[in-house]
């Protein structure tokens, strides 16, 4: 009798170990599934600020101006011809505090090395459809500009082109086209984006005062950091746009897509209560612009653990605990019953 009781208890022990392992796996799988949902990020895509193939019905959300030509597979800001200027502008102002813009683009043409230009600019500005000399847009702009500059206007330059750079302006500074904007740039990097067989991408992330620009131009499906600086202040209520220009030299400047994602980031109540539309575009440069990368005011590196993710993780944990409790209770009850039978 005693022996068989111990045998039974041993079996119960094995069964519990098995159950425990199963449970751990179950909870693990559950968390994986939960996490997958947010990693896809698709639920944060903001259609009203995005431009995607085949561009049907986007006329309600985007203005196309100048030489811009819309086909079903690309939006061509300029053809590979001299003295063309084209732009596209989102009609809907953006009131998101934290966002990430993914731009899929293609710059291509028949020009040989260094005989092509001028490039594309991506904008987040107060004004829209305001023509000027900076990649066909206004030089005294308010807001953020990211330049994909394919032609080196400054002969003395030591950097290799195409060159990607960023600038924040409050209307007081003029982009110096002759110097490729060097005096006003916040940072930049060279990127071989022209006449590539594969697609090229640029990502602009603005969150908690941190501006991060990443490129994916080598067809490896991974972002490479180009610019990452803190202390950047941009208001809400500005407009996204893209523009391009050709001069004596030219290229096809194509936008394939612009996708805006909302980033789920917590803000303090004080931050929430501010009127974000009143913010003056500025950058607090603690050191020289390029050394500004370790500014502690922004903490937005890598994949953020967004509010949504935290919620899902907590939900997973809670589900795990509930499942554990229920199974534990059932096992306990079964065991009590068996024990009763033996005594
Ligand atoms: C605009 O920027 C310039 C230079 O960065 C600065 O001197 C000026 O104070 C700014 N103006 C406002 C209104 O913030
Ligand atoms: Ca240039």
UniProtKB/TrEMBL annotation:
<keyword id="KW-0430">Lectin</keyword>
<dbReference type="GO" id="GO:0005537">
    <property type="term" value="F:D-mannose binding"/>
</dbReference>
<keyword id="KW-0479">Metal-binding</keyword>
<dbReference type="GO" id="GO:0030134">
    <property type="term" value="C:COPII-coated ER to Golgi transport vesicle"/>
</dbReference>
<protein>
    <submittedName>
        <fullName>Lectin, mannose-binding 2</fullName>
    </submittedName>
</protein>
<keyword id="KW-1133">Transmembrane helix</keyword>
<dbReference type="GO" id="GO:0046872">
    <property type="term" value="F:metal ion binding"/>
</dbReference>
<dbReference type="GO" id="GO:0000139">
    <property type="term" value="C:Golgi membrane"/>
</dbReference>
<feature type="transmembrane region" description="Helical">
    <location>
        <begin position="310"/>
        <end position="332"/>
    </location>
</feature>
<dbReference type="Pfam" id="PF03388">
    <property type="entry name" value="Lectin_leg-like"/>
</dbReference>
<dbReference type="GO" id="GO:0005789">
    <property type="term" value="C:endoplasmic reticulum membrane"/>
</dbReference>
<feature type="domain" description="L-type lectin-like">
    <location>
        <begin position="37"/>
        <end position="263"/>
    </location>
</feature>
<dbReference type="InterPro" id="IPR005052">
    <property type="entry name" value="Lectin_leg"/>
</dbReference>
<dbReference type="InterPro" id="IPR035664">
    <property type="entry name" value="VIP36_lectin"/>
</dbReference>
<dbReference type="GO" id="GO:0005793">
    <property type="term" value="C:endoplasmic reticulum-Golgi intermediate compartment"/>
</dbReference>
<keyword id="KW-0812">Transmembrane</keyword>
<dbReference type="GO" id="GO:0006888">
    <property type="term" value="P:endoplasmic reticulum to Golgi vesicle-mediated transport"/>
</dbReference>
<dbReference type="InterPro" id="IPR013320">
    <property type="entry name" value="ConA-like_dom_sf"/>
</dbReference>
<dbReference type="InterPro" id="IPR051136">
    <property type="entry name" value="Intracellular_Lectin-GPT"/>
</dbReference>
<keyword id="KW-1015">Disulfide bond</keyword>
<keyword id="KW-0333">Golgi apparatus</keyword>
<feature type="signal peptide">
    <location>
        <begin position="1"/>
        <end position="35"/>
    </location>
</feature>
<keyword id="KW-0325">Glycoprotein</keyword>
<keyword id="KW-0472">Membrane</keyword>
<keyword id="KW-0732">Signal</keyword>
């Amino acid at each position: 009798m005693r022996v068989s009781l111990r045998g039974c208890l041993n079996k119960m022990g094995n069964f519990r170990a098995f159950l425990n392992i199963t449970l751990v796996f179950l909870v693990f799988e559950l968390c994986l599934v939960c996490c997958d949902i947010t990693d896809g990020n698709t639920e944060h895509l903001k259609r009203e600020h995005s431009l995607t193939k085949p561009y049907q019905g986007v006329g309600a959300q985007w203005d196309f101006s100048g030489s811009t030509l819309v086909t079903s597979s690309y939006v061509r800001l300029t053809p590979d011809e001299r003295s063309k200027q084209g732009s596209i502008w989102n009609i809907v102002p953006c009131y998101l505090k934290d966002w990430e813009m993914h731009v899929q683009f293609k710059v291509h043409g028949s020009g040989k090395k260094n005989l092509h230009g001028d490039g594309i600019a991506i904008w987040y500005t107060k004004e829209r459809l305001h023509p000027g000399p900076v990649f066909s847009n206004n030089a005294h702009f308010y807001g953020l500009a990211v330049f994909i500059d394919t032609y080196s206007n400054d002969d003395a330059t030591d950097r290799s082109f195409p060159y990607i750079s960023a600038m924040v302006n409050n209307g007081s500074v003029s982009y110096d086209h002759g110097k490729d904007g060097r005096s006003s740039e916040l940072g930049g990097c060279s990127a071989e984006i022209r006449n590539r067989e594969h697609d090229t991408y640029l990502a602009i992330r603005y969150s908690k005062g941190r501006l991060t620009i990443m490129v994916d131009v080598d067809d490896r499906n991974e972002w490479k950091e180009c610019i990452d600086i803190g202390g950047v202040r941009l208001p809400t209520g500005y407009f996204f746009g893209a523009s391009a220009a050709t001069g004596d030299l030219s290229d096809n400047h194509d936008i394939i897509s612009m996708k805006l994602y909302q980033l789920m980031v917590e803000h303090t109540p004080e931050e929430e209560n501010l009127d974000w539309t009143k913010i003056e575009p500025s950058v607090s440069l603690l050191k020289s612009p390029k050394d500004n990368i370790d500014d502690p005011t922004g903490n937005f590196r890598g994949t953020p653990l967004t509010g949504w993710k935290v919620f899902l993780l907590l939900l997973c944990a809670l589900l795990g605990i509930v499942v554990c409790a229920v199974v534990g209770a059932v096992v306990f009850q079964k065991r009590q019953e068996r024990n009763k039978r033996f005594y």
